[in-house]
Amino acid sequence: MTGISEKVVLVTGASSGIGEATVRELAAAGAQLFIGARRGERLEALAAELGDAAAWRALDVTDPEDFDAFANAAEARFGRIDVLVNNAGVMPLSPLAALKRDEWKRMIDVNIHGVLNGIAAVLPRFVAQKQGHVVNVASIGAHLVLPTAAVYCGTKYAVWAITEGLRQEHDEIRSTVISPGVTATELGDDITDPQVAAALKDWRKKSLTPDAIARAIRFALEQPEGVDINEVIVRPTAAN
Ligand code: NDP
Questions:
Q1: 46, 81, 33, 25: which is closest to 216 by C-alpha?
Q2: For 13-57, what is each residue's pLDDT tens digit?
Q3: Is residue 204 situated within a structural domain?
Q4: Where is the Ketoreductase domain (predicted)?
């Protein structure tokens, strides 16, 4: 199967921002979407808007059994799985000295274990069918460490490494890292440190809209099977 048309694509974190934009972009390209996140009401509205091309199920990516059930439900609905877009992520930034251990744990659970749970849910299928594509949304923070973002960047360096490891271990599976620069979404709305929240507002003055990242994901998916786009970095023009 080449191109995007008719491919069955699973997208996590589809209830807002980059995930939602990706679902719209891929539906317009003819994909069949199975979408997940915790806020079911948002997924229900998006799936209703897209009609037969999309189905949804509530998903907490930190729960391996829930992710397995999500993949099983996608296969039951559409008959197979061709692509997983591991997009769900959280970014409660703070300086290390603030010792926000619960927030560190949440970032590691969602951004790293969430990605691994997704890979585990689809990898046996992809190996058996000798074909599949895992797209992991990392960040520009997979390449540089930003102030107050030590843990967040640590999780995104891990996403980069996991995707590269997957690529090296599997000749027939495509693996792509998408590394967005600052993008205007709900990410970071849960930052608890007022100074850091203000800094994020400032960074957002020069930001992408989520459709820019969705187009990069579409680009990776629409290549022929023999072409594996390993990474796409997308920054706002003139950003440092
Ligand atoms: P949003 O906050 O808009 O979207 C994050 C999504 O992740 C939401 O749909 C949320 O859904 C979902 N999510 C969070 N926790 C869980 C969970 N436990 N289980 C399932 N879904 C979960 O932010 P973005 O669209 O910006 O983020 C998408 C990805 O892009 C993230 O991985 C982020 O790190 C990355 N990124 C974003 C950048 C930016 O500047 N915006 C820059 C670089 C990378 P719900 O709450 O309904 O579960």
A1: 25
A2: 999 999 999 999 999 999 999 999 999 999 999 999 999 999 999
A3: yes
A4: 7-143
Considering the domain boundaries, does residue 26 fall inside one?
Answer: yes
Rounded distance between C-alpha atoms, residue 34 and residue 161, angstroms: 26
Residue 230 maps to a domain: yes
| ipTM of the modeled complex | 0.99
Other Cβ atoms within 10 Å of 117 Cβ, number: 25
H helix runs in 88-203, sequence order: 101-107, 114-128, 150-169, 194-203
Q: Is the pTM of this model over 0.90?
A: yes
User: How many other C-beta atoms are found inside a 10 Å radius of the C-beta of residue 95?
Assistant: 14
Q: In the structure, which protein residues have their CB atom closer than 6 angstroms to any atom of ligand 1? A: 12-13, 15-19, 37-39, 59-62, 87-91, 110, 137, 139, 180, 182-183, 185-187
Rounded mean pLDDT of 107-122?
98
pLDDT confidence bin for 2, thresholds 50/70/90:
low
Handedness of CA 114, 175, 57, 218 (dihedral sign): positive
Residue of 104, 152, 157, 160 with catalytic role? 152
Supply the range of the domain harboring residue 177. Answer: 8-234
Q: What total number of domains does the chain contain?
A: 1
In a domain, 2, yes or no: no
Q: What's the CATH number where 160 sits?
A: 3.40.50.720
pLDDT value at position 3?
A: 84
